[in-house]
Amino acid sequence: MWGWGAGWGAGAATSEATATAADKYTDADAYWYLTPSDEQKVALGKLREQLTAEDALVPDHDDDITLLRFLMARDFNVDKALAMYRDMRAWRQAEAINGLYQADPAGAQFPEMEALLEAYPHFTFNTDKFGRPVYVEMLGRTDAAKLFEVITVERLIRYHCWTWERYLRCYLPACSEAAGRPICTTTVIIDLAGLSLGHFNAATQRLLNTFSKIDQDYYPEHLGLMFIINTPLIFRGIWAAVQPLLQERTRKKIIMLGSDYLPELSKVVPPERLPDLLGGGGKLRPGYKSVGPWSAPDPAQQRDEQPAAAGAAAAGEAAGVAAEAGQQQAQQEAAPQVGQEGVVVSISTAVDQGAAEGEGGKGKDAAVEQVQEELAAGQAGEVAAAAVAAAALTVQA
């Protein structure tokens, strides 16, 4: 069994009175899918039986862990999980997701990937103490204007789906082999250092909305823990007000930290496995290239080592198309959408408006009120709730 602080400074057992959220996150939380209860096993059997009768099982998405994820996302309500799985199947067929990664494991269809990573820094770096991949997003370093110059929204959504498929077919299998047990979740680190209002314009809000819907509807229950670091004080106040409205399972997955994040983060991700730009001992490769147990079998890593000149012409063409699409999109209305998949848009818009309303905490109060209304209405699922955290951080102290 894995233990908190095994081999890296646990010392005496942590008392319940001083235990932090990271301290309380146990093996049972990390590997919940390996020990379903008898009641959950019954629900699993019913779901499989119904999908088999309908001939609706999706190849490579028909294992027990996948079905358990859909059941968990719907609180083990078999009928709701069945509807969710059917929707996933229909979406994969309509968007030609099946075979997306297998046909192009090196990501050759995205010649703009290098420029994309520079404008929108994100990468997966090593594994946490549970053997799960650690995904890092440098939200404060994102250049939204540059991003939409190098890639269209449509292609960025396609890239998002491709990275999900790579995650399922390359990263997780490699992590599972290295850990000696099935790994199906990840630890996420969102770094907000340098974040400002300009990071969340109407275009990025719509994009976050789409990403959130894809993540929660078609790839549910992959989030293990989310650390949001370098958070401004004003948002920690917002988060304190919102947190009680979230389900306990969701609250337990999201940990807010300021600039002194390393001691708490290190309880889950050993310092030597963190990248140097986050204060760890690991060396991040140039261009925000991912590294971990999957590096050797990942064709995209091999491709990353090749000169980028071959894709320059294609990237230039993509940039031209992106610029044209951006002009067309700018002419569209940016009204916030409402509903579970629209929480990111409505919340971030509310926070933007709140921040502009004046001084003396009025902006924060308006943001909290809007967030509370959305959450009280039951419109925020697990991924949407996590996205609320990032979106609401458009408020700066």
Report the CATH architecture of the domain at 113-277. 3-Layer(aba) Sandwich
Report the portion of residues in β strands: 5-15%
Number of helical elements: 17
Rg, nearest Å: 21 Å
Protein name: CRAL-TRIO domain-containing protein
Pfam families: CRAL_TRIO, CRAL_TRIO_N
InterPro entries: CRAL-TRIO_dom (IPR001251), CRAL-TRIO_dom_sf (IPR036865), CRAL/TRIO_N_dom (IPR011074), CRAL/TRIO_N_dom_sf (IPR036273), PI/PC_transfer (IPR051026)
GO cellular component, one term: plasma membrane
Keywords:
alpha/beta, Helicase, Ruva Protein, domain 3, 5-stranded mixed beta sheet, Phosphatidylinositol Transfer Protein Sec14p, 397 residues, CRAL-TRIO_dom_sf, globular
Protein topology:
Layout: H1 21-24, H2 27-30, H3 38-53, H4 64-73, H5 78-94, H6 113-119, E1 122-127, E2 133-138, H7 144-150, H8 153-179, E3 186-191, H9 202-218, E4 223-229, H10 233-242, H11 248-251, E5 254-256, H12 262-265, H13 299-304, H14 312-330, H15 343-356, H16 362-376, H17 382-392
Parallel strand pairs: 2-3, 3-4, 4-5
Antiparallel strand pairs: 1-2
Helix pairs in contact: 3-4, 3-5, 4-5, 6-7, 8-9, 9-15, 9-17, 10-16, 15-16, 15-17
Subcellular location: Cell membrane; Golgi apparatus membrane
Main location: membrane
Domain CRAL-TRIO: 112-286
